[in-house]
Amino acid sequence: MKCSPSLDVGVESPVIPILVSFPQLHPHLYTPRILHGLGAIFGKPLKIDVATSVGSRPSMARVLAEFDITKSYPNQVWLGSESLGYVQDVILDEFPPFVHLVRVLGIWLGDVVLLFRLTYLMQLLNLL
To answer: Could you tell me which InterPro entries the record lists for this protein (predicted)?
Structure first.
């Protein structure tokens, strides 16, 4: 969360970190600069996962990026020039359950979403 004059601590941010996967990405594209550029298509790139960085999983590159859940995102992107490029598949990790509630309602309800986020995190930690 960024500090700004318009920051309202009572309203939950619609931006969440999600892993973006690029299956069968060409090996010459496994550079931090290019991977961060691919992540930037979806939001602010935060980190390249370790397996991608060290090359231990050449079948898929993964980048952690910030997503605004109020927007929709493509499942394919065009890489390269118009004549020599190709369509690259994109797989987004599953959004947490509270995201679907927000999309169905079509509005951002800070307190409701915060409750769903806390419930989701507690379920992940087996506290419920």
So the answer is: At4g02000-like (IPR040256)
